[in-house]
Amino acid sequence: MDRIINIIKIFAEWFVEWFIFITAGVLIICAVNFSLFNIGDLPKNTLLHILLSALLTAAVTTVFFMVEPLRKNSLRLWFVLHFGSLTVTMVVCGVWFGWIDFDLPGIFHMAISVAVVYAFAITVYYILDKHRAEQMNQRLREKYKDDEER
Fold first, then answer.
1. Which of 40, 49, 94, 134 is the most buried (most CB within 10 A)?
2. CA–CA distance, 58 with 13 (Å, rounded to integer)
């Protein structure tokens, strides 16, 4: 039972983290698209659509990160499957919300948008994860230094 609670806790923590990263990335993409392509004013329900699409992609991402590849050589396949899952999710959302047409240019545009958000979110995640690891290592060095001095 403790294992299940721990898994749920980890899922919730990672889900919130990914939701924030992805929402920020999607907002940036929307701002760029609306500015560059002179789409006009942002429709009122678009913010709700952004949150819903970020919720869905954060769930997909959290599941993928909880089921990491077993072998190093399967990492590329893992990334391809993850990116593909996110792209399919966002194409469905894009068509559903009227962001894109279900044609080759629309799908391509969404795939590029997903790639940009993917790069943004992974980069932020990497930087924060690296910082956390450095903090943990520093604390461990301090702890072992204190233990040696005793």
1. 94
2. 11
Residue 13, CA distances (Å) to 17, 90, 107 in order: 6, 23, 31
* Pairwise CA distance, residues 90 & 56, whole Å: 9
E-assigned strand segments in 11-140:
none
Please state, in angstroms and rounded to a whole number, the distance separating the CA atoms of residues 86 and 55. Answer: 11
The model scores a pTM over 0.90: no
**Residue carrying structure tokens 């958000």:** 117
Cα dihedral 22, 27, 28, 29 sign: positive
Distance, in Å, from the CA atom of 89 to the CA atom of 73, rounded to the nearest integer, reads: 26
Sign of CA dihedral 47, 53, 57, 59: positive
Confidence of residue 18 (pLDDT cuts 50, 70, 90): very high
What's the count of helices (H) and strands (E) in the chain, helices before strands?
Answer: 4, 0
Give the rounded percent of residues in the chain with a pLDDT score beyond 90: 47
Q: What is the pLDDT of residues 74-85, one digit of tens each?
A: 888 888 999 999
